[in-house]
Amino acid sequence: MTKTVEARHIGHFFAQKQVLEDVNIAIGAGEVFGLLGPSGAGKTTLIKILTGQLIPSSGESTVLGTASMGLRGEDHKQIGIMMDQFGLYERLSCYDNLLLFARIYGIPKEKVRLALEKVGLAGAAGTAASDLSKGMRSRLLLARAFMTSPKLLFLDEPTSGLDPSTAQEIYKMIFEEKSRGVTVFLTTHNMAEAEKLCDRVALLNEGRIVAHDEPKALCREFNHKKRLKVHLYNGKDIDLEHTYASAEKISSLLKNGDLETIHSSEPNLENVFMELTGRSLAV
Ligand SMILES: Nc1ncnc2c1ncn2[C@@H]1O[C@H](COP(=O)(O)OP(=O)(O)OP(=O)(O)O)[C@@H](O)[C@H]1O
Ligand SMILES: [Mg+2]
User: Fold this and answer.
1) Which residue is closest in CA terms to ligand 1's atom 26?
2) Cystine design at 228: which of 62, 113, 194, 240 (Cβ 3.0–4.6 Å)?
3) pLDDT of res. 283
4) Of 127, 139, 117, the residue nearest 96 (C-alpha)
C-alpha cells in the first residue's frame, strides 16, 4: 500500500557539511509520527525536503503518492505546513494573513473567521503578525496549516517555547486532526510531548536515524536500565539498580524503619536517546 510519507535514502549536504545521512521513513495514513532530535540534528532540513522546499543531495521522497519535488498547487491544498517564518506577512493582521492564504487556495472568505475561532484568535483578528506573542503566533501558524482541511500536516516544533497550558491546547488540536484521520508528521525535542502524541517516533542524531518504533516499544527495549528510586524518612533519595543485588540494601533500610517510599522507574525516550547517543535531547 502507498505510504502517506515515504523517504528513501535521503542525504543532504550544506556546503561540505553532511546534515542528513541515509534517512528512510515510511508513514501510514492517519498516523502521528514524531521526529525527535536535539537542535541541529536535521529535523527542519528533512521537513523542507519532504515538502519540496529543498532538493536533497541524494535519495527521494514522496508525499501523498507524489514526488516531493513535483508537488504543485493542488497537492499543496492537501498538505498543511507549520514552521517558523513560513508564510506569515509580519505587517498584515491575523485576519489578512489568512485571507491572503484563502485567496491563493480558493478557500471561501467565511472560513477565515472560523479558522481564527478554532485556534482562539478571534479577538486578535486585527492584530499585526509582528505584534503577536509567541503562543499567538504558533496558533496563527496552526490556523493557516489547518485552513485547507489537509490530509497531511507537517508541524515543525509546534509547541516550542510555549507555556504548558498553550501547549496542551495545541495537543488537543493535533488530537482532533488525528481523529479526523489526518496524518501528522511533527518534530520536537520534547520527549514527553512525543510520548503523549505520537504513534511512532524516529530518533535523529547528527543527521542519522538511530532508532524508530512506537514510544512504548522503544522504552521497553531499553528496560534493562530500570532503576529503583528509594526515598528515606531523613529526606535522602537513593537510586538503586533493579536487580537482586539491591535486595539486601532495601531489606536493611526496611528493617531499620528508614524507608519511606520506593518506586521503579522505567526508561523514557530521553534515557533511550542518551543511551544510544551519549547526549541529551533537550538542547
Ligand atoms: N541553509 C542552510 N545553510 C547551511 N547550513 C544549514 C542551513 N540550514 C541548516 N543548516 C545546518 O544544518 C544542520 C541541521 O539544521 P536543522 O535546522 O535541520 O536542524 P534542526 O534539527 O531543525 O534544529 P532545531 O531543533 O534547532 O530547529 C545544522 O547544523 C544547521 O546549522
Ligand atoms: Mg528546526
Assistant:
1) 39
2) 240
3) 60
4) 127
